[in-house]
Prior knowledge:
By secondary structure, the chain is an alpha+beta fold. It has helices at about 5-20, 45-65, 105-125, 125-130; strands at about 25-30, 35-40, 75-80, 80-90, 90-100, 145.
Amino acid sequence: MKGPKENDKFQMAVNYVAEYSGVKGSVITDHDGLVVAYGPAVGMDSELYAAQGLEIVNSINKSVAKLVKPGCSHISIKTDQDWITIAHTCVFYLIVAADKQADDLLNVRIQRALEMISSHVKEKYPTVSTLTKPVSTGSKNNLEASHV
Length: 148
């Protein structure tokens, strides 16, 4: 894991989402499922969410590969009690766990956090940001699954 100064901007992004009402916690993970930063978690195991979040992304991308290309950039799953969002930007994933009762303005916070992550990656790792373009959650390749 990187030192505190290098993680500050990633930490700011997860804290920005985690401070929203109804959010249980948030985590930034790389494509291998390693936790880069996590927000205050209330009943949320950051490492479990990171690993399982990527399993969900891979499973859904495999299932919808014939329907959409290049795959999902934003997945939202709602159950009777919970709301899990997994969003991709650059080379990282932002995973947010919230109560189902959290309002839709949470999506605005998630989008802003993705912009913060993308901006930090562009500043800190310019060669990475030119290889992979950040994907807006407003793209036509989004998949929203609502399971009740």
